[in-house]
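Second opinion, please. Pick holes in both lines of this record:
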Amino acid sequence: MNFIITLLINAGILLGMAYVLPSVKIKSYGTAILVALVIGLLNATLGMLIRFPMNVVTLGLISFIVHLIVTALMIKLADKFFDDFEVKGFTPALIIALVMAIVGTFI
């Protein structure tokens, strides 16, 4: 149940960021749910493979920053998978990742 709630909240964050940031475009809430699901799956698989060596190299001291950067990379990768979702630039993806992380800590 927690996964579904987190998925719906992340989809809402994506829609909210598309409304606030002019460089982020998303077609509908259904697309936002699919994009949030893909971002979650990418973070759980590929993101973990990228985060682990980076955390080992930095001794886990900047784990939060590593997590933000990897999540932003996964958002940009999800952008390539969907025609109805577009993020122009790395900075908006980093802002979306930051908002997802902040909201995720409160959930």
In short: The radius of gyration is 13 Å. Helices lie at 2-20, 29-57, 63-81, 90-106. The chain has a mean pLDDT of 90.
